[in-house]
Every structure is written in C-alpha cells, then in structure tokens.
Amino acid sequence: MPKTLTISEEVKAVLRAATLTDGALHLGPEQLDRPLYVAVNKVIEALGGKWNRGKRCHLFTGDGLAELQGVLDAGKIVVDKFGYFPTPEPIARQLVQLAEIEAHHSILEPSAGQGHILRAIEAEMGRNGTAEIICIELQAKNCEVLRAGGWDVIEGDFLALEPQQVDRVIQNPPFERQQDIDHVLAAFRWLKPGGRLVSVMCGNALDRSNKKGEAFQRFFELHQGRMIRNPEGSFKESGTGVSTIIVVIDKPLL
Fold this sequence. Notes:
Oligomer: single chain
Structural class: alpha/beta
Strand order of the largest sheet: 9-8-7-10-11-13-12
Radius of gyration: 19 Å
Shape: globular
C-alpha cells in the first residue's frame, strides 16, 4: 500500500546540489556516509532512478527526474511499493547458487522488481546462458526499468497467470498478509517434475500458528524442503529490517 517518505534536510541538500543532465542525476564528488547515501537513494529510486555503475550516475525512466524539484519542495514523496524491497546482491547471488542452474534450464522470476535477481543470473550464466527466462513484474515503473535494461518482461499479476512449465523458479516475493506463502505455492505449480524452487520468505514463514501457515508447513515438510536463515539485517539496505529465510523446494519426479 502507498507510504509517505519524509525527506530530511540533509537529503534535500545532497539532491539540490546534484547535477542533472540528459535524464541522469550525478551526485556531488564527495563520498556520502552509508546512512545518508541509503536515504538519498530511497528518494531517487522512488522517482524511478537507478544507479548505473558504468556511467557513475543514476539514470531515470519516465518523468521522475522532472518531479524532483516538486518533491524536494514538498519535503515528502508517496511511495507505492506494493511490498517491494529489492533483493540485496549477496542474497541474489545465494539464490542463484542454490538453484544450481544448468544451460538447458528454463527459469521463472515471477516478482522481478528492478532486476536484482536477473542480474545475478546473468552474472552466473550470461545473458543468453539458459534456455529461457520468464520475467514477470506487477509495477509499471519497475517494468520500465527492466525494459531499459534489455529484459523482456510480462507486466501483470503473477498470481493471475496460467502456469507454464519451467525447470527453476528464483524469487523474492512480497511478504505482506502472508503473500510469500501464496507466491511460493503458485510458483511451485510452474515447476516441471524434477524442478527446483528457491525463494526468499519472511523469517517466520515456517513458524506461523494460523491455518494458512500450518498448511504451508505441512507442504514444506511433505516435499522435504530446506531452509537457510539469512543474517539479521540482510535487507537493511533495501529499507527494511524484517528477518528473512531462503527456502529450497524440489518437485518430485513422476
């Protein structure tokens, strides 16, 4: 659901001093301390900006850069995150390694966000190193970022789509209202026999005492799932302190 992000005077000062050229935002030459950079980056990403390592600046899709001055004047920005918290690079790498991808595999990334897991797959296998990557994303702004990065993306609600058959699912789904359970169960239906699902989940996903949580625990045990607990603070750079786990679930061969 939409949230209001208040912009501190310190963050405003950094952004007012930035240089704007041809759809790009260049921060000043001075090194920002980590907490300040994270706060600045939250505003930039909320406006549709994305860090480009090669060009050493934030590039924008859409009209976000044109909105910057008004946002700074208002001192706040409404962020419609839909529970979106980008997958930190170390977690994305771990997901890909646990998936044990091979060149002939087809892969589903059903909550692609702005491509953090896709880039980890690319780093491991190359852009065309697998048989197929099906990339799905709900938020239009995120889809713009993915397309700008050269990814083909299906824009829509993954839960509403008819399952296809893939060898691997790698995902970081939304957590609110136990959506992580819904997404894991839906993604499992996409797997071929012998396929593997690797997913981030909320830290208490296997400890919930309600009906939905207990049913998922039975599903997890039935399929002999594996769980890896992520270190506390693993998603801090993405704007949340929520505890998380990674689950690995294989689909039995027929």
